[in-house]
Amino acid sequence: MQTLSCGRYALDLSRPVVMGIVNVTPDSFSDGGRHHAPEQALAHAQRLIDEGAALIDIGGESTRPGAPEVSVDEELARVMPVLELVGSLGVPVSLDTRRTAVMRAALATGLVDLINDVSALEDEGALEVVTGRGVAICLMHKQGNPDTMQQAPAYGDVVDEVGGYLARRVALCVDAGIERERLLADPGFGFGKTLAHNLALLRGLGRVEQMAGVPLLTGLSRKSMLGAITGEADPQQRLGASVSAALAAARGGARVLRVHDVKATWQALAVEAALTADGGDAA
């Protein structure tokens, strides 16, 4: 059984699992402002768990293309009250942050089980802060920063470059004493990539996973690449495309699917599992 050592929990990754998104921001691209208040965030997290989320990802800074930075104090003011509430719901809690100071404060609560970092622990001191804390870590690839990353992304071979970067960040963590069983890697769909780059990565997920040497987390839910494919401008109207992309990622080897639409994704995965189970009964 493939298991992620995830803070207070051991997460079974023998089959893909769904990570539910709780954005406590006013400006996230799809659901900014909807769950900003701690009580709203708690209700939303519980709903996602009821719908099949195996873990919850809390984010206090929008990293959509063109997003402005928020201060550390503002990010902490957003996420800390939510952690206090969501941390007792009985599933692993992931904190989506790229800042060392936010990691340090949040980890001190004992309620964070996974650090989901779009900067792959590149912030000064981040590696030292998470080492020895017993939490899982997701290392993501991005090219550039959110405010400029989509201006002119360029690669020679995007699959090899992304896979190579993730392999180096994984090696850095392992050398620092973080067990490989605590690590995930994320190719960073939409983070400094064109549509062509994103599609190449989705087709090449197996190669990325092989190079990284740890399970993959993917985040394709409602993203602009899906709007570019379907012509749907409204992110909230990209459900079908999001579920299709999640299934494609799961078939490509992804083990954690970070999504807004938990119920639909979980149902699709359940059908996929039934169809591929040895000796399964199609009736």
Automatic annotation (TrEMBL):
<dbReference type="InterPro" id="IPR006390">
    <property type="entry name" value="DHP_synth_dom"/>
</dbReference>
<feature type="domain" description="Pterin-binding">
    <location>
        <begin position="16"/>
        <end position="270"/>
    </location>
</feature>
<comment type="similarity">
    <text>Belongs to the DHPS family.</text>
</comment>
<dbReference type="GO" id="GO:0046872">
    <property type="term" value="F:metal ion binding"/>
</dbReference>
<dbReference type="GO" id="GO:0046656">
    <property type="term" value="P:folic acid biosynthetic process"/>
</dbReference>
<dbReference type="InterPro" id="IPR045031">
    <property type="entry name" value="DHP_synth-like"/>
</dbReference>
<comment type="pathway">
    <text>Cofactor biosynthesis; tetrahydrofolate biosynthesis; 7,8-dihydrofolate from 2-amino-4-hydroxy-6-hydroxymethyl-7,8-dihydropteridine diphosphate and 4-aminobenzoate: step 1/2.</text>
</comment>
<dbReference type="GO" id="GO:0005829">
    <property type="term" value="C:cytosol"/>
</dbReference>
<protein>
    <recommendedName>
        <fullName>Dihydropteroate synthase</fullName>
        <ecNumber>2.5.1.15</ecNumber>
    </recommendedName>
</protein>
<keyword id="KW-0460">Magnesium</keyword>
<dbReference type="GO" id="GO:0046654">
    <property type="term" value="P:tetrahydrofolate biosynthetic process"/>
</dbReference>
<keyword id="KW-0808">Transferase</keyword>
<dbReference type="Pfam" id="PF00809">
    <property type="entry name" value="Pterin_bind"/>
</dbReference>
<dbReference type="InterPro" id="IPR011005">
    <property type="entry name" value="Dihydropteroate_synth-like_sf"/>
</dbReference>
<keyword id="KW-0479">Metal-binding</keyword>
<comment type="function">
    <text>Catalyzes the condensation of para-aminobenzoate (pABA) with 6-hydroxymethyl-7,8-dihydropterin diphosphate (DHPt-PP) to form 7,8-dihydropteroate (H2Pte), the immediate precursor of folate derivatives.</text>
</comment>
<dbReference type="InterPro" id="IPR000489">
    <property type="entry name" value="Pterin-binding_dom"/>
</dbReference>
<dbReference type="GO" id="GO:0004156">
    <property type="term" value="F:dihydropteroate synthase activity"/>
</dbReference>
<keyword id="KW-0289">Folate biosynthesis</keyword>
